[in-house]
Design goal:
The chain is α/β, with parallel strands linked by helices. The chain has one domain (3-217): Rossmann fold (3-Layer(aba) Sandwich). The protein has five helices and nine strands. Strands 4-1-5-6-8-7 form a six-stranded mixed beta sheet, sandwiched between helices. Helix 3 packs across helix 4. The protein is globular. 35% of the residues are buried. The model has no long low-confidence stretch (mean pLDDT 95).
């Protein structure tokens, strides 16, 4: 997960408003989080990894639900068998590059969302191979828009998001590798049916901490 994912979701919910219930599709309760600004600032490749003392979106809704096949939940494709028109707000972050059939996944997400709901999807365009368990796809904003519209969603926003070029000092942390890395993400904010923005108050982003001394010095400065 990227630290920018948490910022993206927070910004979009502040802008459009939260609807209940809120679900994270394919997320984790305590993910590893990468903040590349920390590595760029320190030059330390391990400084990018941070942790939270909460779940990623508890600052928005402490009761939100996490559905992930790794903990026994149905896959996204199978969720319509259990949830129909059920969710008011959903996020799907760094997941759809790992699914076999993104058309089926978008169709399933459409079925589980309520009318006047909010769905935030984020994935990568440029990122190293990362099987979890398999790594299938890379997406452009045009691709996300097409998938969403084919499923029936209203596209509120769809664009590039995080752009970190290979000359910014990010390198692979894989054993035996020191290759430069480019990281680019894309996102789409979607709705189902008629949509009414309900801007929310500002949310305080969660505090981060790290086992890396260089990262912690920056985090403590705020």
């Amino acid at each position: 997960m990227f630290w920018d994912d948490i910022r993206l979701v927070t910004e979009q919910i502040e802008k459009y408003g939260i609807r209940q219930p809120f679900v994270d599709l394919g997320g984790m309760e305590q993910p590893c989080i990468a903040d590349y600004d920390l590595t760029i600032a320190t030059g330390d490749q391990q400084a990018r990894y941070v942790s939270l003392r909460q779940r990623p979106f508890d600052h928005i809704d402490p009761a939100y639900l996490v559905l992930n096949p790794d903990k026994g939940d149905p896959s996204i494709e199978d969720l319509p068998y259990y949830y129909q028109n059920a969710f008011g707000t959903a996020v799907c972050l760094n997941v759809i590059e790992h699914v076999q059939n993104p058309f089926r996944v978008f169709a399933a997400m459409y079925q589980i969302m309520k009318h006047d709901s909010l769905l935030i999807v984020e994935t990568v365009f440029s990122f190293p191979y990362h099987p979890s368990p398999i790594d299938y796809w890379r997406y452009t904003p045009d691709c996300l828009r097409y998938l969403a519209e084919q499923a029936g969603f209203l596209v509120l926003e769809c664009d590039w998001r995080m752009t970190i070029l290979a000359d910014h000092g990010i390198r692979s942390t894989a054993p035996g590798s020191n290759e430069p890395q480019e990281v680019r993400s894309v996102y789409a904010t979607l709705s189902k049916g008629n949509f009414r923005p309900l801007p929310a108050s500002k949310y305080q982003l969660p505090d981060r901490y790290s086992n890396n001394q260089a990262a912690n010095r920056l985090l403590q400065r705020g």
